[in-house]
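Query structure, 601 tokens:
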């Protein structure tokens, strides 16, 4: 495309056609790139004083000395060209995405017996690149799935037909582990190998249903041919794929290819979250920050983010949804703002991520000179709490192998453990190992007593566990009619996810965040306190039974001895006079003689 050049006095001579315009200053430096449905009308608007431009725009207009335009076929083409030019030149008055990361890709090589491996270098001609992935963890999850399901080689050998024919290689450990079928020795044909590669490509593209259909068909055909071992092999592969898909599935699989955007703004900045949905699963999530340069509207900022993020992550989705409408319609963009249903839930999820990112940024840039409360302020921001959580209580259950069920509550004041406020609980109303019912009991007992003693409720309750334990604790609060008066969350151990009552989507706090580390520390302390108490109870019960097996010794006597001597070993080592001082001469002689006999026996 050939660019045409104009002086600022010639703006009225521009054509009434769609295209891209570029502004240059007196040093011939590009300072702004814009798109227009009508170049003449759009550029003229900058130089007509009656429009009342804002201060930033007026400052830019004063710098303009030359205009260049490029005519295109339609406004959508202008949008794409504008994006490419901004990305390449980064003019100072254009909106820029704050993102300097180099993202990882998975490369499917174009060599014989193709390999799949991670890379950050896009080298044309090496093969097909899939990505970019917004996180290394997400990429590794996909790569691990492929290597668990398919027998794709990991070696770097040159497996050209001539090398295999010359028998230059020997199979390695991967072959003996069953992770490779030995193409290096000619034990697997390239045609069979490429069948698996084709299915691996479907997974890399997010087409899980095609890969699942392949394994299902293979399983059924093997079963029909009475090859039951082979059928079981494909069944295991199918289950692995379905398990992975189920983990990532957050909405109906009928939503096959969709881009979701949520935008949150303040005076100077916009925060945009992007979710790429394939077959009901989020396969990419990314939040970016855009700094306003010329007081752009929310719709302008959103459109900028849509074009650049779709370009960055190679999206071909025909459908786009967001929380606000665009100011203009563009050919090739099927855009909507859903109000109900699964798509509205996806918008809510995207906004949740954008708002969390905004809070993190504002907190990081704020005054954190008060170190004592910095983490608590961050936790307040992360969890959207009304008050700073300077009083936190955390509950945990312990019933190893279903015996001696107990629970613990630890208390943190101003982010520090308040050991005097810790509490142990014997489970009284629940029979057998039932964590949910036990949680309801101990939370109910704790806050019933707090209410009776007219003591203040905590600013935050933390439950060690996921949705089940959290729901059980909420039930106790509802019975006491204090649900809603104090915030309550659950923390699931496996992925360190934060759950809120009646919210199906967990919150993922940055793993490096100080606030998450505080929650983990409180959770771990509650767990340690519960485990320690459980061991004491179990040990006490075991030692107590040895004492109560002695004729004439009951629970009270055993309790007195254990309280004094702390362990059975120390009771055995005690003199008759020391034992007599606790339980009297008669019972002391029975205990002393019985333990001596057991020790000698």
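Result returned for the query:
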């Amino acid at each position: 495309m050939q660019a045409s050049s104009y002086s600022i006095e010639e703006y009225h001579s521009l054509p009434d056609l769609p295209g891209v315009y570029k502004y240059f200053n007196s040093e011939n430096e590009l300072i702004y790139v814009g798109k227009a449905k009508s170049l003449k009308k759009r550029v003229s608007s900058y130089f007509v004083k009656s429009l009342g431009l804002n201060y930033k725009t007026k400052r830019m207009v004063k710098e303009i000395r030359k205009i260049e335009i490029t005519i295109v076929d339609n406004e959508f083409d202008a949008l794409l060209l504008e994006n490419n030019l901004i990305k390449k030149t980064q003019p100072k008055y254009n909106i820029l995405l704050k993102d300097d990361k180099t993202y990882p890709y998975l490369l499917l090589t174009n060599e014989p017996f193709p390999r799949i491996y991670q890379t950050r270098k896009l080298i044309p001609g090496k093969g097909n690149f899939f990505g970019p992935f917004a996180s290394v963890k997400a990429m590794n999850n996909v790569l691990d799935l492929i290597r668990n399901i398919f027998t794709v080689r990991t070696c770097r050998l040159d497996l050209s037909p001539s090398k295999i024919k010359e028998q230059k290689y020997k199979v390695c450990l991967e072959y003996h582990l069953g992770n490779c079928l030995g193409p290096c020795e000619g034990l697997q044909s390239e045609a069979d190998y490429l069948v698996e590669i084709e299915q691996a490509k479907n997974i890399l593209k997010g087409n899980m249903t095609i890969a699942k259909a392949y394994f299902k068909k293979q399983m059924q055909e093997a079963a029909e041919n009475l090859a039951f071992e082979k059928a079981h092999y494909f069944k295991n592969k199918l289950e692995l794929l379905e398990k992975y898909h189920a983990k990532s599935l957050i909405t109906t699989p009928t939503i096959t290819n969709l881009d979701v955007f949520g935008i949150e703004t303040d005076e100077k900045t916009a925060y945009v979250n992007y979710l790429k949905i394939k077959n009901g699963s989020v396969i990419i999530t990314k939040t970016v920050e855009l700094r306003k340069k010329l007081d752009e509207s929310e719709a302008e900022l959103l459109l900028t983010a849509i074009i650049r993020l779709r370009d960055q992550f190679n999206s071909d989705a025909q459908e786009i949804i967001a929380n606000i409408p665009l100011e203009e319609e563009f050919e090739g963009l099927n855009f909507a703002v859903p109000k109900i249903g699964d798509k509205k839930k996806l918008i809510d999820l995207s906004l949740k991520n954008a708002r969390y990112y905004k809070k993190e940024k504002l907190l990081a840039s704020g005054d954190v000179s008060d170190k004592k409360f910095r983490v608590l302020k961050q936790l307040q921001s992360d969890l959207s709490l009304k008050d700073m959580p300077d009083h936190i209580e955390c509950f945990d259950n312990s019933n190893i192998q279903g015996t001696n069920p107990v629970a613990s509550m630890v208390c943190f004041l101003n982010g520090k453990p308040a050991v005097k406020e810790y509490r142990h609980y014997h489970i009284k109303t629940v029979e057998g190992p039932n964590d949910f019912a036990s949680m309801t009991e101990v939370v109910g007992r704790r806050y019933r007593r707090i209410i009776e003693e007219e003591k203040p409720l905590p600013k935050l309750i933390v439950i060690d566990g996921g949705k089940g334990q959290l729901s059980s604790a909420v039930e106790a609060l509802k019975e006491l009619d204090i649900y809603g008066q104090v915030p309550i969350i659950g923390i699931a151990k496996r992925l360190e996810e934060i759950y809120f009552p009646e919210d199906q989507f967990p919150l993922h706090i940055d793993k490096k965040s100080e606030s998450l580390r505080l929650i983990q520390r409180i959770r771990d302390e509650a767990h340690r306190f519960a485990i320690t108490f459980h061991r004491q109870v179990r040990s006490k019960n075991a030692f107590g039974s040895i004492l109560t097996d002695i004729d004439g010794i009951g629970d009270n006597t055993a309790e007195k001895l254990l309280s004094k001597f702390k362990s059975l070993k120390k009771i055995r080592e005690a003199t008759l006079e020391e034992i007599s001082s606790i339980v009297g001469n008669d019972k002391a002689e029975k205990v002393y003689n019985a333990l001596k006999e057991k020790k000698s026996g």
